[in-house]
Amino acid sequence: MAQAWRCSGLRWSADGPVLVWDGGRRSALTRGKRVAFGVGEGDVRTCVGARGHPCPLGAVVPARSTGARCEECARLDRAHSVAADTLDDPRPYRVYLAWFGPGMAKVGITAVARGSARLLEQGAVCFSWLGTGPLMAARRTEELLRAALGVPDRIPYTDKRAVRAALPEGEAERAAEIAGLHARAVALSGWPESLGREPFRPVDHVGVFGLAGLPAAVGEVSELVAGGVVSGELVAAAGPDLHLATSGGVVVLDTRLLAGWGLVPVGGREREPDVPVRRSKGRAGLQDGLF
Question: Where are the beta strands (DSSP E) in the chain?
Answer without folding.
Answer: 5-13, 16-21, 26-28, 34-39, 92-101, 104-111, 126-134, 196-197, 203-204, 217-221, 229-238, 241-246, 249-254, 262-265, 277-279
